[in-house]
Amino acid sequence: MHLHILGICGTFMGGLAALAREAGHRVTGCDAGVYPPMSDQLRALGIELIEGYAAEQLQQAHFAPDVFVIGNVVSRARLADGRPKFPLMEAILEQGLPYTSGPQWLAEHVLQGRHVLAVAGTHGKTTTTSMLAWILESAGLQPGFLVGGVPLNFGVSARLGRGRHFVIEADEYDTAFFDKRSKFVHYRPRTAILNNLEFDHADIFPDLAAIERQFHHLVRTVPGSGRLVVNAGQDSLQRVLDQGCWSDCVRFGPPSGGRASSFEARGEPQDFEVLHAGQVAARLRWRIGGVHNQHNGLAAIAAAEHVGVSPEASAQALAAFENVKRRMEVRGSAGGVTVYDDFAHHPTAIRTTLDGLRRQVGSARILAVFEPRSNTMKLGAMKAQLPWSLEQADLAFCHSAGLDWDAAEALAPMGAAVASDLDSLLKQVVGAARPGDHILCMSNGGFGGVHAKLLQALADRSG
Question: What is the pTM of this model?
């Protein structure tokens, strides 16, 4: 089968392309930004990439895909002059060519017949999915997986695997312009983690209740012999379950609101006992910091237990877990200053990431450098929460380019520095940094290569 993937350089679609290629299909694709590292990874797999969405792609010699796989970056939008933003999609529709969404293709050609373990939640999906895949790998189950990042233990974001289990990051974002259901509805998991649930994706969801409905659509797909692994401390998830639950439900985390918990932690985030049904089942000492990662680990342990991996074996595997690229990743040190990269972009994720670093560095100064880049943040839906999210930072710096709201006004309660261009931001951060400081850069994008630029500027200053 020949697949041509529109939007191939996105994390999910790039992973799907790798899976299709590994399965023996011919894969080509196009995107508006064919650039490293994804472009290099795909070309190394023998995948031909085309820049842009020109309809002329259909006129290339010997170019007759069996199906076009459409990423959710593609829409029916038009430019200011009236021309379609994605002329290739318009041509596909006009000519009646076969097309499908990425999640639909994945469900039909990869997930069918396998025991799917899906990890859903506003935060921690990538990390928890990586933890769970590593646990199953360490147990000898040879799982397949698709992760929205690169787990350092594997070095790749996707693989088919030889076993019957497949671990997938289950995103609540919509599937495609022609299918507005959340992606995770397609995956039909037998084991599903509901890690947490907050308002996000303000560009497609009007309120939290709308997201809760999508999560309940996921719950509806889990069979009676399946398992839901649910955060005990989330009222939003309880409201999801109150709409109906037909599967075994195992809770993790501290008991809350009268809800008992089957998997709890006792101790510090980097050295704690795993309690199962009130009894000590394992002890986990690892390098991963933060209470949020302690909870992510509990969720992964509870899901793995459903497929026969004991909590003790899971804890042994997690002791060797190396985290995911762009999750509190140390990018380097210069002039006595350490620079980190993290994917945090939602206020809750920013706060938990800073809390994890604070526990790690003690009283040392933390400089938080962030850009509100997600669609939700650009719309200003979360701006009031930013001062709260940054409380653990000693200094904060915001890159405000592309915002329709006043970042300086929103961040006034904590006196954050705001710059609309990257050069000004760099000068502010480097001017404030002192030896012994920790600079935490947070964005769900490339952030203009700010990490390398900071390290170079700090090295030049100290030299």
Answer: 0.80
